[in-house]
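User: Hello, beginner here. Can you help me understand these amino acid letters and fold codes? It all follows right here:
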Amino acid sequence: MDIVIRAAIAFIVLWLVTRAAGRSTLGELSSFELVLFVVMGDLVQQGITMEDRSLLGNLLAAFTMVLLAAILAYANMRWPKIGKLTQGRPIVLIRDGSIDRKALHAERIGLDELSMLARLAGIEDYNSIRLAILEANGKVSFFTHEAQSQQ
């Protein structure tokens, strides 16, 4: 039972760490960041099992993590308010060419990063952006005035 409790605590801590890292950070991990998360998972595993080398201990810890992830996914689907809390909600970064600097600061997104994302979307000027939304998965969706007039 001790392994289940430690696995549950580790699950909550890892969830909090990934939420604190920010959506834009998790949306696209660099190779180093991916390795860092894998190493962090290995370190957490050792803490969960207290270096327990038994097959039952390792399977119990893995099962607990999978079960908690499934419960969280079900709760997100069943109760939308929980989904907003655990997954976050979309955040408007630009509205009618006007940048919301508070939203950028809160999400730890630099103006240069936003400009790069706009350029990658084929947008040269902020004034042509009707809406830029940071999605819950870390991607930025851009809606331009030109796209609206074509519909």
About this structure: The CA atoms of residues 2 and 48 lie 9 Å apart.
